[in-house]
Specification:
41% helix; 6 helices; single chain; alpha+beta; 135 residues
Length: 135
């Protein structure tokens, strides 16, 4: 994908690097070619999210944590810092993150049987979240 200023982002490369972050179960990077930054739709790893939230002094159910603004802000920072340790370029690191609490399974149609992202389906399902991240 290409950003507004001409930077190219290899979505698969960025996703494979960020997927190893402790709070990420699955991730879909999205770019709008009319914008200067990319965003991420993240299905959080439940244990990683619970552990991370506890370090922030936040507790709750998985669903509550996925919607907690403090957790989302801190997770965005964590993912950004993690991307830097993986030698991603600044423009490759997502600037904004949305948590998707629904499991991405082959039954949901969001991933293949080999658990590869079905990008078109993910983008369609989360179009409102994408729109809100680009406001």
């Amino acid at each position: 994908m290409k950003l507004q200023h001409g930077e190219y982002i290899s979505l698969g490369k960025v996703e494979s690097e960020l997927k190893t972050c402790q709070i990420v179960e699955n991730i879909c990077i999205y770019c709008d070619s009319t914008k200067t930054y990319s965003i991420a739709l993240v299905q959080p790893a439940e244990k990683g999210l619970n552990d991370f939230s506890a370090t922030l002094g936040v507790t709750g159910t998985y669903s509550e944590l996925c919607k907690n603004p403090k957790v989302i802000r801190a997770a965005t920072t964590l993912i950004g810092e993690y991307g830097k340790t993986k030698k991603l370029n600044k423009f490759e690191i997502p600037t904004k993150v949305a948590f998707c609490e629904e499991l991405w399974t082959p039954d949901s149609g969001l991933v293949t049987a080999a658990f590869k992202i079905r990008r078109k389906e993910v983008v369609e399902k989360y179009k409102n979240e994408i729109k809100s991240l680009y406001v």
